[in-house]
Backbone:
């Protein structure tokens, strides 16, 4: 699917965003961008600080991986509460990606808000 | 011949040998991601025809939560497991190859192994199969873990605190995730069916290729990709896959004829349910897939090379434990009245405050001795505070969730809440509304609620230190 208009939200720039438990103590979110151009333009919008603020977890606990050839950014962080206890609301963490769908993207990716050093860049990227 | 890979084009016939003609050292048939989930007719036969050396299937996981380990109950129904097992046992018998089931009975408890073993015994009698069955138990007693703890051999993973004795003592069941070693030993000892307790998903698939001398990097990577069956194909619900390991890599193909593996579907599976898509911890080392090359051999098979396995100096087994976190009672009231739904936030907060006040005043339970939530399904029950959508809901299922240290207290509190959940007006309403209870009685006792209490590994001296194997044979 080629989306013509400039993407306004993460949902506009991606073909799939999904979340899932990764063992009982981690949550992982996979963000599949539509195109390589979209990946290059917008993957830097996914920062540890931003993920920490959306999910209410410490930024230092967030891991971000970039896999350019799959056009994927992966975000993982420890679950605030272990899976399945009395206060569980999403056993498989399968709906936790939804708050990211409406995340606004800057009209010009060069205008992406600057973040403290070490927070803005994608971590753990495996270069090809 | 140049082939497109994730790292650009690559010439694969430098020495005149196509990658597709590389000598295969072992083939593993993975019929489905979970025993009991079923597979399309003919797919297993297709994998056998392709030369499978073993049928390996996962029988459990922590994926569905702590109950199955804590209560030692399977998630799958006996009928569905028996249905799958019968077809697999007959196929293995006809092909003269072994069959391995891992994490029997969902949680991989001793009871789970015995449950699957009983089903196998019934099928063996009915079909007159000649079986040597190895049951590998991996449940660990609290005393045993306490011993490891006392000698400094238990270590927390990630952000988990050090294990303490009170936490350990609360666990109902503890299992250690076995590696491939006890499975391989059982097969070497003559078993043609191996029913393993809790095992890593990959160990079940890796055992036979490692026994046959395949290189560890491709074996563990292939096992990781194939452990959910057809989830790494274009038809995720089509059943299984076949992995073929060679000296440099592995090839994967779907068992269903209309399904395809592509470099993208295979590589993308490394993302699924993994916190780290490149490095995965196994008992004996770490799989490093960061340099892997995925290439399409044709339109439905993918070959993967460049996977590495780094053996660790210390063999570790991960422990899983489930403890009772309390007892719950629920009541469910449906709300369709727009007058309430337009102010659902106010209604929710005023109801919770009123209930908590009454529970303290009338029942005498102080706030620390129980917990109470009203989860408004249709409004923000799933995401809670993370939900920023300002729209009013069209319909709400208000679920009262009471948790206490025993069922009687949880039930008492829920009963006290009943008339308020039924009639609570929004502020300023002059009438007394009634909401839609879905049952009589409204209260639903859930019994014990479990939680995962361990996220630790234990250092082992022997790879089979935590497992016990028992063999039975058909007459």
Residues:
């Amino acid at each position: 699917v080629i989306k013509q208009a400039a993407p306004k939200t993460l949902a506009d720039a991606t073909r799939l965003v999904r979340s899932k438990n990764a063992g009982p103590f981690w949550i992982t979110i996979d963000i599949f961008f539509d195109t390589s151009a979209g990946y290059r333009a917008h993957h830097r919008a996914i920062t540890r600080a931003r993920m920490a603020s959306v999910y209410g977890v410490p930024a230092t606990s967030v891991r971000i991986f970039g896999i350019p050839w799959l056009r994927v950014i992966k975000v993982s962080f420890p679950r605030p509460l272990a899976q399945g206890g009395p206060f569980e609301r999403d056993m498989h963490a399968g709906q936790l990606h939804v708050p990211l769908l409406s995340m606004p993207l800057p009209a010009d990716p060069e205008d992406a808000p600057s973040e403290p050093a070490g927070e803005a860049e994608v971590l753990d990227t495996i270069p090809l | 011949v140049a082939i497109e890979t994730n790292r650009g084009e690559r010439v694969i016939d430098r020495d005149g040998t196509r990658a597709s003609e590389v000598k295969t050292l072992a083939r593993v048939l993975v019929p489905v991601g979970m025993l009991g989930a079923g597979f399309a007719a003919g797919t297993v036969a297709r994998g056998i025809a392709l030369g499978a050396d073993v049928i390996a299937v996962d029988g459990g996981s922590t994926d569905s939560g702590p109950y199955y380990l804590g209560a030692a109950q399977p998630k799958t129904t006996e009928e569905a497991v028996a249905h799958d097992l019968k077809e697999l046992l007959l196929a293995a018998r006809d092909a003269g190859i072994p069959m391995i089931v891992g994490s029997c009975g969902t949680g991989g408890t001793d009871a789970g192994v015995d449950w699957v073993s009983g089903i196998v015994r019934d099928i063996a009698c009915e079909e007159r199969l000649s079986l040597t069955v190895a049951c590998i138990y991996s449940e660990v007693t609290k005393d045993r873990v306490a011993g490891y703890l006392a000698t400094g051999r238990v270590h927390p993973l990630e952000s988990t605190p050090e294990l303490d004795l009170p936490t350990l003592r609360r666990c109902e069941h503890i299992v250690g995730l076995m590696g491939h070693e006890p499975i391989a030993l059982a097969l070497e000892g003559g078993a043609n069916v191996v029913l393993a307790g809790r095992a890593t998903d990959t160990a079940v698939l890796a055992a036979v290729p490692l026994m046959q001398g395949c290189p560890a990097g491709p074996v563990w990577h292939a096992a990781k990709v194939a452990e959910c069956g057809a989830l790494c194909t274009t038809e995720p619900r089509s059943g299984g896959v076949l992995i073929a390991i060679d000296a440099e890599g592995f090839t994967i193909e779907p068992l269903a004829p209309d399904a395809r593996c592509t470099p993208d579907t295979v590589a993308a599976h490394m993302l699924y349910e993994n916190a780290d898509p490149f490095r995965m911890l196994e008992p004996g080392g770490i799989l490093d897939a960061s340099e892997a090359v995925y290439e399409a051999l044709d339109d439905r098979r993918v070959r993967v090379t460049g996977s590495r396995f780094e053996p660790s100096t210390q063999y570790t087994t991960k422990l899983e434990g489930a403890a009772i976190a309390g007892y719950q009672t629920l009541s469910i009231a449906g709300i369709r009245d727009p007058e309430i739904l337009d102010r659902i936030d106010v209604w929710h907060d005023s109801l919770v405050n009123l209930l908590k006040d009454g529970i303290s005043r009338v029942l005498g339970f102080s706030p620390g001795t129980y917990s109470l939530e009203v989860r408004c399904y249709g409004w923000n029950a799933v995401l809670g505070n993370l939900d920023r959508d300002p729209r009013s809901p069209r319909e709400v299922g208000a679920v009262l969730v009471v948790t206490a240290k025993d069922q009687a207290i949880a039930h008492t509190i829920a009963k006290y809440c009943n008339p308020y959940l039924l009639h609570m007006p929004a502020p300023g309403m002059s009438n007394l509304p009634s909401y839609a209870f879905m049952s009589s009685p409204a209260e639903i006792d859930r019994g014990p609620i479990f939680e995962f209490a361990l996220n630790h590994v234990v250092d082992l001296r022997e790879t089979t230190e935590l497992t016990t194997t028992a063999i039975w044979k058909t007459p």
Q: What stands out?
A: Chain B touches chain A through 47 residues (CB under 8 Å).
